[in-house]
Each structure stands twice: as structure tokens, then as C-alpha cells.
Amino acid sequence: MADADGRPPSDLRLRVMIGGILAAVAILVLALGGYVLWAMLSVGAVIALIEWGGLVKASRIRLVLALLVLLAGLIYALPLLWGLDRSTVALLGIAALLLALLPRASGVAVGSAYIGTAAIAILYLRAQENGFLLSLWALTIVWATDIGAYFAGRGIGGAKLAPSISPNKTWAGLVGGMIAAAIVGGAIAIFGNLPSPTLWLAAPLAVIAQLGDLWESAMKRRAGVKDSGRILPGHGGLLDRIDGMLPVVILAAALVANGNMR
To answer: What is the distance between the alpha carbons of residues 76 and 72, in angstroms, rounded to a whole number?
Structure first.
């Protein structure tokens, strides 16, 4: 007997165990914040970009250049050194655009800007008032979406969401993920006394998380691989675990930066 992703039960148990460990580490690092959070995000961003480079079949030199761009943006965002504001994201984006001018380098340049901006977005959220709960709210929305989508998709089934990209995803799973995200996100918003928009933003952000997941699935299908890497037993690559988180934290940080989360 296999789960909804075609994996045997033993593999599913391993995935649950590794997923729980990753969630616990993420919460601890968020709580510590500062240099610890920056260091973990930097390491994670480098690993994710290397996996991204594999999916877009970037040459070694282009991947190295993209990693240098990524690290330049993250160093500029180093907490307690220069501070953190929207100019950091702008710097990373401009550098990635310049990198994209290189022949056949646009794919890895997009990855550098996308992954780097997401890492900086988490730093930005964590630096806000109630930053720990705000950043935790953003992450738990993604976790709840994944869990809700899995159980709703497995229990209900029905019409496929995007069969040509990810055959196992269903519309029932999307709705289940939105409901789970709304419940968990709403609970954190209420008990954490977060800004009022966080009460209703969880469900829309769950859709964004699923779109991020589908984007990476399309990249893997184009590359002809099942996983982005092998770093996480039972899960594949790091990018496979954070694909839905990337657009969510970017959008959440953008809403905060523009004063829409008060």
C-alpha cells in the first residue's frame, strides 16, 4: 500500500519524522533570530540555489556567478551590521538582472533573485514588532497547507488540479489546504495579537503556496527528475520542501513593507 504520492508507508513515516525535525529546527532558529537565523537562511539559500541550478541545467560558471550574487545580497542583509530594508531586496534583484544578461543564464538568475529575496523576506519579517510570531505565522500557513492538502486529497480525491504538471494534486486538496491554513493561521493571529489582515490572509496565501509548489513541479518535469536533490531522506531536495514557502514569505514581507499588515 502506498500514500498519495506513490510512496510506501515506511517512506511516509520517514517523511513525517524528518518533516517534524525540520519544523522544530525552523521554529528554534526563528526564536533565536539574529545571526543564527541569518546563517541558517544563508546556508539553506545556497543549497536551494544549487538544486535550482541543477533543474535549469546551469553551467558551473553561471551557477558560481549566481551564488556570488545571492551571497552578496545576503551579506548586505546581515542583521545588526547594516540593518535591513527594502533596498536590500532591490540590490539583489538588480544584481540578478545583470546576471541574466549573460547568454543562457536567465534561469539561474531568476533562482538567485527568487531564493535570495525569500531569505531576505524572512529576515525582514523577523525584524518587525512581534517578528517571531509574524514569521512563524507565514511558515505555519505553508505547513498547514501541505498537511491539509495531503489529507483532503487522499481522503476525497476527485478532479485533478494540474494533471500535466503534478498528477497527484487535486482541487479537493487545494480547498483542504486553504481550510487548514485559515484555521492555523487564524489561531496564531488571534493568540499572537497579530495585525488584523493576518486573520483572513492565510487562505489566499495557501493558494500562493500551492502555485509555488506547482512551479517547482513544472521545473522538475521539464528537467526529467522526481526530486530537486537528495539531501533530505524521504523528501528529496531542500527545494522540494520550501517551494511553497518561497512565494508566501515574499508576498507577506511585501505586504508588511507597504503598510498593508497593520
So the answer is: 6
